[in-house]
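Before relying on records like the one below, remember that each one covers exactly one chain. Contacts with other chains, cofactors or solvent are not represented anywhere in the record.
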Amino acid sequence: MASSPIPNWSILHPLPLGRGEPACRQAGVGGLIILFIWGLALVIVNEMTPTERIKLGISTCLLGLNVRYDGGHKLDRFLTDTLGQYVEYVPVCPELECGLTVPRESMHLEGNPDSPHLVTSYTKQDMTDRMARWATKRVKELERENLCGFIFKSNSPSSGMERIKVYNKKGMPVKRGVGIFARIFIDHFPLLPVEDEAHLHNPELRENFIERIFAFQRWREVLQKKENRGMVVGFHTKHKLLILSHSPRHYQAMGKLVATAKDLSLKEFYSQYQTLLMEALKSKTTFKKNSNVLVHMMGYFKEQLSSDEKKELLEVIDFYRKGHIPLVVPITLMNHYVRKYDQPYLKKQAYLNPHPLELQLRNHV
């Protein structure tokens, strides 16, 4: 028996009237399925519940403000025009806020990569203590902002979060440093999602970071209410499949924690759960892990799905697992069956709608 053809993903782009049918025929049965799914996705966009804007810290220059040492900026259009529709930014410019001017002498890190010094490039002034004193005070002020994450400027000696050049005595750089402010921020907020704008150009890293900030916002909503074990259990129930898609190991550990919650004080229970949650979501999803979750979800429809529907869904999941189509395709079909058969448990799962579909985070292959 011949296998089903791999669908032609180009059919998902808007087509002029009259061209849709030939494109679908060329794509085969799989293409027809996916075109149907794409139509469903457009419906889901309008059905998603709007959320309160998420507070994110960000390096000021990424917003287009002229605060860099040379008087320029590093405007990032995705951050301002796309993600900016869903977040409220709290801008931070370490060099300007610690009292330096615009323009100013450039700086770099030198010495021991584990504890480097921040030094001006030409006059060789050591700005380490000045920056560290300001940063220590600033992170305490940022506690009041209830941030759900931070976007740093890559390659910055003050704000870069990894692989920053650190120069040795011979003037040779090694990419092992962390910016002075970034290190103090990360140490002070160890569970907050952090990323730099360069990594956010990678579709997988972008999806992981944004998925984490939306999940952290939902967790923050739990924290704002009166502490009780039932609130955490409810949150966990809603996020089970999302956690499983990131880390089966954490999924098991969190299940055991929730089951034994009565053995812990409320404070300890909340603390352990939050740590495991953010550790789990930091782990990257894969084709295999997502496919396993999707097949697991099919089990909730074993009495409702027809043989043709099961075949259709398994075919789409397999296309995804092999890397031929993006995750949005099987997810949208799954959402269709959740609504069609009114599956109560899956309707509440954050995995199906972890962030606004308009961000197109699950559209990459």
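Residues 9-47+286-359 form one domain.
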